[in-house]
Amino acid sequence: MDLLQKYMNEGKTILGVGPVSRQVVQVTDEISKNYQIPILLICSRRQVESKDIDKSYVMSTEEISKYSSNKYIYLSRDHGSVWQGIYEKDLTFEESFEKCKLSYKKDIENGFRILHIDPSLEKEHDKLQIIYDLIDYCESLSKDIVYEIGTDETNGSLTNTKEFEEFIYKICKYLDFKYSKQPLFVVGQAGTYVREIFQAGYFDSTCAQNLSRICSKYGVYLKEHNCDYIYSEDFSQHNLCKVGAVNIAPELGILQTYILLGLLQERDQKVMNYFIDYVHSKKKWVKWLAENRSQEEMENLKNYTCLIAGHYHFEDDFTKEIIDRLDIKKKINNLWNKALTFRITEILKNLGWKI
Q: Is the pTM of this model over 0.70?
């Protein structure tokens, strides 16, 4: 972690990219190598999970492990913990807890360097105790990992500074006493959150500065989630606010879906409609609806729901067969690579990286 800490201590904000597709992973890997910029691949358990646990919608933990050979790529578990897996909604706490432990074990075996412990979906058990128990488990497997701690409320709220400092104090005290280490990142909310295909919140620089100041006091770095679609000037403010790292993810998948729909419309309108109906029927878009929207309202907006959730289905046989039947694989990959490269490098430039 020395390289990451070196840059963050110099005031650089690290970019975390969610692997919402194979193309995003490949493009991120190339950018980091070409420009020698450290980038976090922030893998949720729904996107990337061990083949021994569950099927994920992008690739397995074992598949993504090959990117750990790039010294500028930091494989990071995003939203690890209970009920964060793709098929865990109906599990008991004990069942889900055992699954998330196995997930962390597979992460460590496959070169993940940063593990996010996020018990935000837990409603009945002591969240701090869950964090402590999972730290103990991971430390029993390896001493060479670091942690990102904290919940991601995704509602545009601002983190209460008093509660934030109390939380950091307890986590740092526990880790220091038992393992003589501190977390690398603590998650704080500075107003940003994503709904549908837009930034529904705003970046509060004053809040970010206050949270960063508290993090610095304890020798950790602030991590801000849900930074998709924010303005260029807001990205540039992150260095000034000493934010350690920011996450983006869904906007890249939506960018790819927009390009795919355009190409399908150009080649075969009927096939495009099949794809739209397929994505709509799977209802992955529901979790992203704005608070004032209903599922019933969206039944007449299938093109829009497809744009929101198309990337969840890039690896489905249905989508692959469409791409093969229309013989557009090479063209769509070229278009995706160009668009993703442009957007990711644009964000890096706004964060102050030289490209």
A: yes
